[in-house]
Design goal:
The protein has 267 residues and is of the alpha+beta class. It has helices at 2-17, 23-26, 30-48, and strands at 93-95, 100-103, 112-116, 122-127, 133-138, 144-148, 153-155, 162-163, 180-190, 195-204, 212-217, 220-226, 231-238, 243-252, 255-265. Helix 1 packs antiparallel against helix 3 (30-48).
């Protein structure tokens, strides 16, 4: 292209030295006529040798999320079908303060299924109409058993629990067994008139169908205790020279089974 321009420039100088029609004939001076010829020549050269134009590079458009009303990018939510809540009512949990028999039905005629222990939570699943017994399971397990309300702690709205009626016993509870291994520790403190006597008693529960236990001192009933009880402390004022005897029995609607007798004196 530079060579063409140089050649045309020389050609223009040559033309300017030539005899062109006068300005009066064409209306143009010799220099103007030469410039016109050069321009026409350049235009013709450009048409014969066009310079290709660079093709614009297409930009990749990045997809954008449609803005929400707050100006934040919208989040695509998956289609979720809600599921209905099932199972036992919320927060119906049972605990016990001491080892407690949990039976296959409400009463001592039913066999013991498990022994509930302190420090463990149990799921409540049903109740009797009078709220005297709860039906519970170990959490995560399906075997149900019955426990007296008076011997347990219910947490939650128990009125949400369904009312159930027990079936007849499917296994024998066994014969009532007398407690064994009765043992004691005692202390005697003179109070100016007689002695303040403290006796701590312990025994073994050998039955699984007792209503409770009866503690006797010198043949007289001192106290009735609930089922599964295995200890009691007796406080009384007595003579340091007297010998005292104790005996514990298990009892239910069928009768009473008396254990052995122990004796002591403060001397």
């Amino acid at each position: 292209m530079k060579k063409i321009i140089a050649t045309l420039s020389l050609f223009a100088m040559f033309l300017s030295s030539c005899n062109f029609p006068s300005a009066q004939d064409s209306g143009l001076t010799a220099e103007q006529q030469a410039a016109t010829i050069v321009a026409q020549t350049l235009t013709a050269a450009a048409e014969e040798n066009p310079v290709p134009l660079a093709s614009p590079t297409a930009k990749e458009e990045q997809p954008t999320a449609s803005p929400t009303a707050t100006g934040e990018a919208a989040t695509i939510q998956p289609n979720v079908t809600p599921t209905a809540l099932t199972g036992t009512p919320t927060a119906t949990i049972l605990t016990v303060d001491s080892n407690t028999n949990c039976r296959e039905g409400p009463g001592l005629t039913y066999a013991i299924i498990i022994v509930l222990v302190p420090g463990t939570q149990y799921q409540m699943i049903a109740r009797t109409a009078d709220n005297k017994y709860w039906v519970v399971t170990e959490i995560g397990k399906s075997n149900a058993c019955w426990v007296p309300a008076e011997m347990s702690n219910a947490h939650g709205n128990v009125n949400q629990l369904s009312v159930t009626t027990p079936a007849a016993p499917t296994s024998a509870a066994g014969a009532l067994q007398a407690p064994s291994g009765l043992a004691y520790q005692y202390s005697c403190a003179f109070n100016g008139v007689n002695s303040d006597i403290t006796v701590s008693l312990k025994w073994n529960d050998r039955s699984n169908n007792e209503t409770g236990f009866r503690l006797y001192r010198d043949g007289a009933l001192v106290v009735e205790l609930p089922a599964n009880t295995t200890s009691y402390t007796d406080l009384f004022a007595g003579s340091a020279t007297v010998t005292y005897s104790y005996r514990v029995s298990a009892y239910n609607a069928a009768g009473e089974a008396l254990g052995g007798t122990i004796s002591f004196s403060c001397q």
